[in-house]
Each structure stands twice: as C-alpha cells, then as structure tokens.
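User: Reviewer 2 asked us to show a designed sequence for the structure in our supplementary figure. I'm pasting the structure tokens here. Could you produce the per-position amino acids so we can include them in the response letter?
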C-alpha cells in the first residue's frame, strides 16, 4: 500500500509543478494525472498551495513526501479499500522542470540534470554510471567495473586506514565539481589545510610558543561524513534535489564487500571497537579518503563544528584551529588541570552533537616544558620539523642515491618519487637550509619508470 500511495503522490507532485502554481490549474492537472475528477485532488492541491506559498520547484521529492502523508490522499486510498474499488493510480505522468533554489554562494546555476551533464560533458547514461546512485560498486566483483581502487595503510596507532582512490575518469569529473562548485564556497577560518594559502604549517603556527597545547583527534573523519550530509551541502548550494542527488553520488562511495573483507583487523584489542565502526562507515555511502573532492566537502561538513569550537575557545581565552581530523587548542599561560578536563568534556560533547566522534586514545596535552607537536611539527618556539624526522629522511635519500630507491620504499608508496619530493618541500618551507641539503641528495637518485609508477 505504501509504495502505491508514494507513486501517486509522486505523480501528483509532478503534475502540480508542471505549470502555474495556482490551485484550480493544479487541480486540473492532478485530475488528468489520476484520470479522475475527484474532490480529494482539489483538497490536495489546496493543501500543497497552503504549505508552499511558492512552488517548490527545487524540491519535487519533498513535495511528494508531503502529499503522501496528506489526509486527502490517505483518505482517498482508505475509501477505495472500504468500497472495494480500485485504489487511485497515475494514468498520465507530467514532466516538471526543476530550478535552482536560493543560495548565498557564487556557484554555477544548474537547474536540472541536463545542465549538470553540460558542465561535466557527459551523456545521460554516463552520468548515471559515474554517479552510481544505485551503489553498484558495493556488489560488483570485477575490478574493471569499479570506479575506485582500494588499498589500506597502517596507522602509527596500530589501526588501519582505507584509501579509496578514484580511477582517472571519475577523478577528472570530481575535479570539475571541486573547481566549479566547491572551491567557490568559503570555509571557516579555523580550517587549515587543503585550501589555498593554508597548510599544516599555518595550522601549527597558530599555536607556536604557547604555554599549553591541547590536541584532540576525530575518529574516521572522512568515513563518518555520510551521503545524507553531503546531499545537504549541495542543497544549501541551491541545487534541486535531483541535481544534488547525482552530485552526491559522484563524490561519495560504498566500499565493495570483497575490499572490506581484505581490511586487516588491528592487533591491539583496544582498537577493535573503532575498527568495527570504520567497517560500518565504509559499508555505506560516505566521503572516500582519496577523492579530490573529499577535503573540501569535509571542511563544509565541519563548518558548524569549527564555529562552535572557535567560540568556545575564544571565550576560554585560547586559540583554535583544525587540520582535517586534528583539532588543536592552545593558551598562552598554564591552566589548571580541572579546567582543562572540563574543557575537553565540553569539546567532546560538541563534537558528538555535530556528528563526529573524538578518539580518546589520541587526546594529548603538552605544556611549555614538554615537546609540543602538531601535524608532525614541533611548535614550542616556532613550527619546525623534528630532528629525528629530518635525519630519517636524509638517510632515506642517501641510501636511495647509493643503492636505488626501490629498497627504500618500505611502505610501498605507489608514487614514491612524489612522496619524497613532498616531504622535502615540507622541510624546505620551514628550514630552507635543511631543504636545500635534502634536495641535493634527491637529485642524485637514479629513478626508473617502474619505481616511479
């Protein structure tokens, strides 16, 4: 019964939206849709007009859900069942054009799926294939039919991280979405990294030379951002429901069961519960860690979190910034342990209310006399790379130049050359003198195509 009611509600929603938003005209189109000149269709049109003073042309699904629960329609089905008559059905389908809703951001106008196809340069079938709104990726067995490549990487804490790397074509379309839409939406000032002019260095620099530095980690940051939340972001852009739905499919993913079964269990018993939560996130549509669009969307999903934590920290006389899943708080002077405990409790509550989860195993507090580290940088006086990290990188480059890079790629980075160059750039941005010494060693390495690929 419910599916039949929903089908009729969907047909009537399309009929109501297919012309002028005027009850008599809406009634006429609705009666043509169900093939009956019934009073309940008029009552339904009046109810829709009362609920929505302006036509919700960006929300056809929302309108259909409203009609499905509306008394005139439910009573029509009940009356048909009581009289043993055929229940209402859709005899004629109307086509209702969708349009953009209100937005405060300078995003491109995409009134319907045809506009989205034009922006991406895709046909109707290709758009449906790449957006995968039916989540076929979860069950497909053949690698060539998948949109992502999967690999896992160990964490220093003993857990594992699933890397979901989109294949070249999907990655191209995601980059178009990033460039044309997501890059035009401002993120909170506390969000550092993955934004032009912001980095791990700017994240850490806010807390350099402070008396107390508190670091809080979010558990499974990307995976915990579900498709419904991403859909809400695109709806905030003003995009109609069908457009937002397909955009969500383009930038979210569900990990196949075979790839999930290959994910190793952590060796430490204390990590099993977080591992189960990770598996649950990956088995449903979520932001994939590895897609070019994920960091920008994660910033937008965490906007309310950043706003609340910024206000909390400012009221407490401190400084706050976030680098992906790392939250940092600092104060210029020492603070009592009890006040810090209360602060952490409040932060944990806010994080939970905003749909994330604190990883208590990674919460750390460092005072001025201790080594204060954020995003791998020491910030006691100014942001700098730890000496041990520098020495290890220098030794890796030296050995790679002497015996070849293949033997030094112990963690099997798929693009080891780029990985080393990125690490050198990080050191160079903080200490040009050290960076130049590393760059000289890097230039001595004899690279081969097999190692670089």
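Assistant: Here is a per-position design you can include in the supplement:
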């Amino acid at each position: 019964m419910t599916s039949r009611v929903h089908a009729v509600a969907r047909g009537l929603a399309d009929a109501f939206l297919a012309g002028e938003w005027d009850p008599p005209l809406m009634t006429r189109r609705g009666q043509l849709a169900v093939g009956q000149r019934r009073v309940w269709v008029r009552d339904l049109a009046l109810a829709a007009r009362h609920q929505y003073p302006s036509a919700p042309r960006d929300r056809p699904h929302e309108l259909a859900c409203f009609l499905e629960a509306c008394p005139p329609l439910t009573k029509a089905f009940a009356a048909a069942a009581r009289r043993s008559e055929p229940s209402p059905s859709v005899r004629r389908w109307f086509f209702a054009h969708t349009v953009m809703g209100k937005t405060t951001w300078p995003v491109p106008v995409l009134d319907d799926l045809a506009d989205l196809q034009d922006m991406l340069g895709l046909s109707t079938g290709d758009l449906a294939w790449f957006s995968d709104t039916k989540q076929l990726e979860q069950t497909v067995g053949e690698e060539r039919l998948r949109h992502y490549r999967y690999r896992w990487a160990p964490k220093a804490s003993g857990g594992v991280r699933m890397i979901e790397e989109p294949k070249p074509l999907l990655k191209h379309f995601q980059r178009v979405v990033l460039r044309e839409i997501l890059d035009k939406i401002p993120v909170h000032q506390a969000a550092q990294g993955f934004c032009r002019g912001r980095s791990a260095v700017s994240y850490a620099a806010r807390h350099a030379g402070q008396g107390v530095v508190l670091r809080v980690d979010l558990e499974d940051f990307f995976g915990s951002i579900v498709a419904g939340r991403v859909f809400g972001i695109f709806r905030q852009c003003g995009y109609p429901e069908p457009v937002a739905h397909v955009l969500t499919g383009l930038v979210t993913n569900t990990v196949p069961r075979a790839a999930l079964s290959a994910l190793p269990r952590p060796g430490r018993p204390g990590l099993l519960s977080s591992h189960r939560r990770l598996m649950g996130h990956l088995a449903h549509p979520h932001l994939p860690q590895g897609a070019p669009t994920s960091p920008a969307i994660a910033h937008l999903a965490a906007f309310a979190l950043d706003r609340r934590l910024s206000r909390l920290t400012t009221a407490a006389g401190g400084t706050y910034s976030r680098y992906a899943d790392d939250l940092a708080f600092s104060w210029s002077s020492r603070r009592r342990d009890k006040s810090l405990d209360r602060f952490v409790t409040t932060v944990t509550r806010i994080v939970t209310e905003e749909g994330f989860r604190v990883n208590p195993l990674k919460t750390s507090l460092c005072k001025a006399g201790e080594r204060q580290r954020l995003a791998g940088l020491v910030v006691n006086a100014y942001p700098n790379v730890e000496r041990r990290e520098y020495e290890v990188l220098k030794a890796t480059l030296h050995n790679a130049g002497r015996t070849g890079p293949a033997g030094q790629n112990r963690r099997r980075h798929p693009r080891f050359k780029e990985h080393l160059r990125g690490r050198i750039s990080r050191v160079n941005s903080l200490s040009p003198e050290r960076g130049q010494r590393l760059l000289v060693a890097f230039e001595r390495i004899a690279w081969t195509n097999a190692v670089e690929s």
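For the response letter, you might also mention the following. The CA atoms of residues 403 and 445 lie 9 Å apart. The two ends are 56 Å apart (CA to CA).
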